[in-house]
Amino acid sequence: MTADQVLVGVGLIVVLAVGSQLLASRLRVPALLILLPVGFITGALTDNVNPEKLLGVAFSPLVSLAVAVILYDAGLGLDIKRLQGHTRRIVVRLIWLGALLTWVSAALFAVPVLNMSKGAAVMLGAILVVSGPTVVGPLLNFVRPTERLQRVLIWEGSLIDPVGGLLAALVFHGIVAGERQGIGSRLAEFSAGTAVGVVGGVVGACVLWLLLRHVRLSEELTTSVQLAAVIGIAAACDALRDDTGLISAVVMGMAMANLPDLDIPARRPFLDTLVSLIIGLLFISISATVTPASLRHVVLPALALVALLVLVIRPLVALVATAGTDVRGGERWFIGWMAPRGIVAAATASTFSATLVTQGIDGAERILPATFLVIVATVMLYGLTAFPVARRLGVLRPARSRPLLVGGAPWAVDLGRALSSAGLDVLMWAGAGRQRARIEAAGLPLAPGELLAAATGAGAELEGITGVLLLTEDDDFNALASMTLRESVEGPVHRLGPPADSQGVMAPYTEGEALFGAGLTGPELARRYEAGARVVAHRVDGAVPAGYDVLFVVRPDGRLAPVTNTRIPTAHPGDVAVLLSPPSRQLSA
Hints:
Elements: H1 3-27, H2 32-45, H3 51-55, H4 59-76, H5 85-113, H6 118-127, H7 133-143, H8 147-178, H9 183-214, H10 219-240, H11 245-258, H12 269-289, H13 292-295, H14 299-321, H15 329-335, H16 343-358, H17 367-393, E1 403-406, H18 410-421, E2 427-429, H19 433-441, H20 451-454, E3 467-470, H21 475-485, E4 493-496, E5 514-515, H22 522-530, E6 535-539, E7 549-554, E8 560-562, E9 576-580
Parallel strand pairs: 1-2, 1-3, 3-4, 4-5
Antiparallel strand pairs: 6-9, 7-8, 7-9
Helix pairs in contact: 1-2, 1-12, 2-12, 2-17, 4-8, 4-10, 4-11, 4-12, 4-16, 5-6, 5-8, 5-14, 6-8, 6-16, 7-8, 7-17, 8-9, 8-16, 9-10, 9-11, 10-11, 12-16, 14-17, 15-17, 16-17
């Protein structure tokens, strides 16, 4: 290809990747639904986006390194300490049992139906084990199932990516080793490949631990150091043994997430942006390599494989994984109806199938098109049916608001009681021990102490929260927390406004809506409360009583409408108004 064709091709891939993700975000659908057909159609129309022609022999190594970055990022979210109790039991079963049943059943099915050799079929089964949060997350955000379902499925998706990537890498080396004569030689080759990846991951994790633990680095340098270590170690491992870099990346990510005394920033905006871009570029590029001709004899067998995975294997896994638990029938069946395949399946298929084809493994050329069809079919099927299925099973999250109140001042606890009496599922958080004791004494649910830190990470602690109200006495904390949480919380984040004469570091200069009317700042609310004012819930049947300040309006369907410095919701008959009474006066609900 000429230099101009390369420039046009690379530029087109980047524009299509980002444009597809932008369109998907506007349509509120998983990006895969846009990326896969765009890449496939563009690849069929022009050779300029075919990465095998653009990059030649460099394409496969670059895909391997890109997947290593994705798996490292996924591994960083695998802090096992966050997975506790009943949820842990279900998720662990879904991981090991789901991986085993999917792997074995897909491999056994692929041999006669897809006309593959045993080696190629075993490789396809290992590839199809993965799902991934990049697919499951957007689907669940659209469907909004119950909090426990969302937590279980998000954790499964986050864990299965690196676990599946590790399994695929191990299977690949087992297949390659199996082509050599002698059982001793096969075991030696398999063990050597696995050892290279594991040792590389351990070395990389040790280097990163030393740097991040003992060297003062900025956020930008911290991310750059991690990227350099992941890519450098993965490239070195791949150079020693083909495709062992994926093993090293998984090991590094999981080690960094669980090593003691290591502060990996919860928010990694540059790394998150890079991973998102890599995902888009990989899907466009890989889809462009799948030609209509390669699909001609695979479509019907691949759809039969999809039917097996969707209608038999996944429901069976869900039933066994939830057996003996208190998961009810509707939740059990919805878990059995949510297992779309994603980027790691596509990327590992592209990486491993090319090598297996050159090794002469019979049927290896069908691995990528079959995987492509499984991804398209599962994403479309689950994307179109997840919401009606969840509604039919009765596992949708209630429409009513679930606010998180941050702060433990007496008036804030009074507000929590009033919102709870209005029918909302209120959750509170406070840092000081006496404030937490005050919340518990009021009979209000108290979020765990690490909740605000976990809210910016990969955990699922804030799932189910529809908005945050920052009500602490520290205006600068409220301002800083509001900026941080807006990127993590699905609903709105509101904070108390600072006093007009505030000399705070941040609060007076932070944009955004502040809670309540003019003058109702934290100090003023505390002063009125000490003078006898109280927060009450009052069902509206006419005008709001004179002298009372409206703080919130709770609609009949449970939606919470706050009063802010720019908006005052109108209370209608049937609504519940949360009011601040004048000092020393009470109002019956």
